[in-house]
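Section 5: illustrative case.
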């Protein structure tokens, strides 16, 4: 799925690298772009879902995931249509879920070599490493990065998470990881080369600081909820909304269904 915002310049390259022999449907949601994202999408045969007003990065993802699940997807992959993450990795990520090894897979820029040489600003790299360190401690995980826009989910996991309770802003990305951890999901990673170009989207320093503070709040939310010190709505699955994940299944279907959504709103 492709959560798009002003992705006119990069949408064609992104879609061109999607393996249509593996991917059954491409769900593109346009978040009230001011450029020609929608006409470009229509020209290449997509049927974009268009928000009349901007609902934010998280709000865009909610529409994407909701529509992918309604289409009956078994595996849902999000790729940013700003071409910052390689669409060529979608089949590999889908297979990690299709073979029953993981419930969620993330493309990690940190595992890739030459992250800074690939264009990631040095301050973003340092912030990424510092925030990831804190998040691993808070969530008791060993992930290399929490801030990637390349993600794959099994449909049972995504359907079980109360994502409508999450923020409509950029912090949605961190909240959904915290939800997956709280649900006991098996989370895997895959190395993803970094691509930062003039036509790739990126949030400015002010928004980056706001996002970083939101990450720290998510860590605190998780710990407070886990210890029973405070009920956090988006992390409160029980007893009203218990999460039940399917058992490990190592017998894949002949062909995995992948519904793709990418968002050009975050860098």
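Designed sequence:
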């Amino acid at each position: 799925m492709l959560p798009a915002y002003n992705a006119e310049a990069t949408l064609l390259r992104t879609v061109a690298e999607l393996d249509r022999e593996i991917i059954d449907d491409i769900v593109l949601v346009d978040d009230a772009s001011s450029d020609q994202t929608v006409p470009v999408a229509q020209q290449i045969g997509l049927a974009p879902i268009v928000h009349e007003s901007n609902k934010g990065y998280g709000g865009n993802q909610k529409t994407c995931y909701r529509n992918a699940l309604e289409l009956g997807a078994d595996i849902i992959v999000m790729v940013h249509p700003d071409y910052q993450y390689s669409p060529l990795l979608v089949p590999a990520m889908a297979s990690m879920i299709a073979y029953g090894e993981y419930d969620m897979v993330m493309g990690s820029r940190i595992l890739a070599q030459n992250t800074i040489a690939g264009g990631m600003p040095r301050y973003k790299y340092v912030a990424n490493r510092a925030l990831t360190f804190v998040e691993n401690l808070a969530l008791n995980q060993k992930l290399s990065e929490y801030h990637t826009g390349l993600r794959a989910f099994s449909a049972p996991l995504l359907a079980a998470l109360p994502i409508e309770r999450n923020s409509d802003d950029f912090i949605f990305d961190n909240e959904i990881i915290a939800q997956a951890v709280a649900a006991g999901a098996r989370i895997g990673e895959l190395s993803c080369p970094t691509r930062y170009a003039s036509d790739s989207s990126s949030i400015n320093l002010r928004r980056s600081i706001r996002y970083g503070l939101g990450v720290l709040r998510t860590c605190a939310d998780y710990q407070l909820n886990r210890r029973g010190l405070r009920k956090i709505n988006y992390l409160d699955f029980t007893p009203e909304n218990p999460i039940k994940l399917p058992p490990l299944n190592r017998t894949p279907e002949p062909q995995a269904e992948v519904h793709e959504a990418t968002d050009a709103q975050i860098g």
